Amino acid sequence: MNIKHFTNHDESSAHVAQYIFDRIQTKIGESGTFVLGLATGASPKLMYQNLVRLLGESELDLSGLHTFNLDEYYPIRQSHPNSYFQEMYRSFWKPLNELNPTFEIPNGHILNGENPKPEFECRIYEKMIEKAGGIDFQVLGLGVNGHIGFNEPGSSGTSRTRMIDLTPETREANKIYFGNDLEKVPTNGLTMGIGTILESKEIVMIVTGEKKRDLFQKLEQRDTPTEEIPASFLLNHPNTTFYSDLE
User: pTM for the whole thing?
Assistant: First the structure.
């Protein structure tokens, strides 16, 4: 595992943001395009603030920047304040567009949690990623039970974008976003598969929070992937870096 250790979350987030910015700047300069995979949750929020500032203050033409989010609750309306659509609109797409209008909000893509045909939605999403040329750089956070995206324990390393049942651990961890009412947390999610994620050219996982300590230690000690810890499949990826602020 390629692990970069930092003393705190602020420092880690700033380093990741600068690194991604440099990657975007280089490839935009060469080809005019960049495909960035995004995650939601607490782990990347501060990094997004830094990255939006860096991209917004730059003179880069971001018309060729496309983002694809890992996952979305199902079922949920995109207008729901706790949908991942709204989270990304508030934290990334809208502020970036305001600072650098060359980035177009419709170029921010996310699975639609209100599509009555979720299987169709997932197939279309795979085709959209393929049409965009694949994901150049994927941002991940580490779930409390080792999930990446909504790929819960038991997910195959070759899985594709699909609907999945959310585990009690995931729903419990996310209830804080739904007024601490577990009944309001959706029971399903739409997610890129692990196989889809592993096709990204480069991956960064942000590891933060004391609740992740024991899990990350287990991950560090592994030599081979296990479905019990979906994040362990990143051991099969040739270009993944873990950014950790855990001592």
Answer: 0.96
Residue with tokens 């399903």: 188
Residues of the chain with pLDDT under 70: none
Q: What residues pair up with 79 in beta bridges, in sequence order?
A: none
Q: Could you give the strand order of the β-sheet that contains 2-5, starting from the edge strand earlier in sequence?
A: 2-5, 240-244, 202-207, 137-141, 34-38, 65-69, 108-109
CA distances from 234 to 32, 77, 191, 197, 206 (A): 28, 31, 16, 9, 13
Active site residues: 71, 145, 147, 152
Question: Could you say which DSSP state residue 222 is in?
Answer: -
- Which pair of tokens denotes residue 49? 């603030």
Beta bridge partners of 190: 72, 163
Q: How deeply is 37 buried, as exposed, middle or buried, from its count of CB atoms within 10 A (0-12, 13-18, 19+)?
A: buried
**Contact criterion met (CB below 8 Å) for 207 and 243:** yes
Q: What is the pLDDT of residues 143-181, one digit of tens each?
A: 989 999 999 999 999 999 999 999 999 999 899 999 999
Q: Spell out where 97-233 has E strands.
A: 108-109, 137-141, 162-165, 188-191, 202-207
Sketch out the chain's domains with CATH numbers: 2-240 (3.40.50.1360)
Bridge partner residues of 137 (DSSP): 36, 202
| Angle CA 177–45–64, to nearest 5 | 120
